[in-house]
Design brief:
The mean pLDDT is 97. The longest helix is centred in the first third of the chain and has 18 residues. This protein is an alpha+beta fold and 95 residues long. It has one domain: Alpha-Beta Plaits, CATH 3.30.70. The protein contains 3 helices and 4 strands; from the N terminus they run E-H-E-E-H-H-E. Strand 2 and strand 3 form a beta hairpin.
Length: 95
């Protein structure tokens, strides 16, 4: 299994817009990617502008598929318009 933790900082006042775009993306991931085992948006308790996406994939093929989907690519510009900077993405191997 492969884990991914993506840290995203959202511009002040754009939290609801970000959450709406992400909710749509998340529904599509869950409906179309059987190799995706978890795709959960979380929000920091100490900094309301910081969100973390917790992802878990069955294998590298499932992770690669995720990044190539039309809906993932289409969500990029909409999500990007709400962010205060580039995401920080960390990849993890299950032990």
């Amino acid at each position: 299994m492969i884990g991914v933790v993506a840290t995203l900082t959202v511009q002040a006042g754009k939290e609801k817009e970000f959450e709406a775009v992400f909710a749509d993306l998340s529904a599509k991931v869950r409906a179309n990617e059987p190799g995706n085992l978890m795709y959960q948006l979380t929000r920091s308790r100490t900094d309301a502008a910081v969100y973390k996406v917790l992802e878990l994939y069955a294998d590298q093929d499932a992770l690669s598929l995720h990044g190539k989907t039309e809906y993932f690519r289409a969500a990029g510009p909409a999500l990007g318009a709400t962010l205060a900077g580039a995401p920080n993405v960390e990849y993890l191997d299950a032990v």
